[in-house]
Write a structure and sequence with these properties.
2 helices; about 10% strand
Length: about 80
């Protein structure tokens, strides 16, 4: 990634040492969704439980139909 770019993703920095080193050297901003604490205050940012809402909000911005690309996952 180029400097001053932002990546918001499931990054798993503890398990991806090589990827973490490359991110540090590129000076990019990384927000690891998997590192958001699972507490009451952070429920709206919890990527592990909020994936469905993210898909709905992304589809509102996409302005096109999704054709069979979304599946439901029940816990």
């Amino acid at each position: 990634m180029s400097p001053e770019k932002t990546l918001i993703a499931f990054f798993y920095p503890a398990a991806n040492n090589e990827l973490l080193k490359r991110a540090l050297h590129s000076a990019a901003n990384i927000s690891a969704i998997d590192m958001v604490p699972r507490i009451s205050r952070a429920q709206k940012m919890n990527g592990k439980d909020r994936g469905y809402r993210a898909v709905i909000e992304a589809s509102a911005n996409f302005r096109c139909f999704f054709t069979g690309q979304i599946t439901a996952r029940y816990f």
